[in-house]
Amino acid sequence: MNHHADSNNSAGLGRRQFLKGVGTLAGASCLPTNATAADENTPQERNVLEHPLTLTLRINGRELTREIDARTTLLDLLRENLQLTGTKKGCDHGACGACTVHVNGDRVLSCLTLAATLQEAEITTIEGVSQNDQLHPLQEAFLRCDAYQCGYCTPGQIMSGIACIGEGHADKSAEEAREWMSGNLCRCSAYPNILAAVRQTAGAEPESDPAATVKALSLAEASSQGR
Ligand code: FES
Ligand code: FES
Which pTM does this prediction carry? Predict the structure, then answer.
């Protein structure tokens, strides 16, 4: 959804300008009375990059060239510069997997990847996995298995799941699939459904209907069971 990157640019800029405006107002009372307007502007506000770098890469099949700060992570490039916000920032420290994207076909944690190292690389984000309005088979399986839950870890789970299937780790055993998906954290009850979707897409026989393991209790049932 490469159009996404550019078409949303103006909206993103508007939001940043707004936040900048809010920040300027909030800080106004702390400024020395003799400060000039020019003194108040940080290099970032003047839109001057301290460590500029021209980066060319392909994102979701489309070539893009941008001037970025050399310290920008791939995650911030996607979310802040290109408004591809499907990739989520969870921990920002490599611990949760919410930021997983593909670089040249391999899954990477975009929060730990410097964009400057990706000259000419092929990046795929969650916005790029469906084709011509046709969902990716794993996205279909997520629907079938009721694996879309919080929505925050979901894009990373799908990107990791697609790679896990491609690597051949999803169809042999549930344990192997679980092991190779373990970098993507899910703290809610959807994890069995996520694993079932990944295994089904890889062609594995589902061991059981994951939906059958989730039973909604009425209030009366729950209190009679002491929950
Ligand atoms: S945001 Fe990258 S691993 Fe958590
Ligand atoms: S689906 Fe996100 S925490 Fe479970």
Answer: 0.73
Predicted confidence pLDDT, tens digits, the chain (227 residues): 433 444 333 334 444 443 343 333 333 333 333 444 444 545 455 567 899 999 999 999 999 999 999 999 999 999 999 999 999 999 999 999 999 999 999 999 999 999 999 999 999 999 999 998 899 999 999 999 999 999 999 999 999 999 999 999 999 999 999 999 999 999 998 999 999 999 999 998 765 555 544 444 445 555 665 54
Task: Give dist(CA 72, CA 87) in Å, integer.
Answer: 15
- Coil, helix or strand at residue 107: strand
Greatest Cα-to-Cα distance within the chain, rounded to the nearest angstrom: 73
Which strands make up the sheet holding 52-59, listed edge to edge? 62-69, 52-59, 122-124, 100-103, 106-109
Residue 85 buriedness (CB in 10 A; 0-12 / 13-18 / 19+): middle
Ligand 2 within 6 A of CB of 145: no
- Is 63 within 8 Å of 121 (Cβ atoms)? no
CB 96 near ligand 1, within 6 Å: yes
Question: 194 and 161 in contact (C-beta within 8 Å)?
Answer: yes
Q: Measure the CA–CA gap between 153 and 185, rounded to whole angstroms.
A: 7
How much distance in Å is there from the Cα of 101 to the middle of ligand 1?
Answer: 11
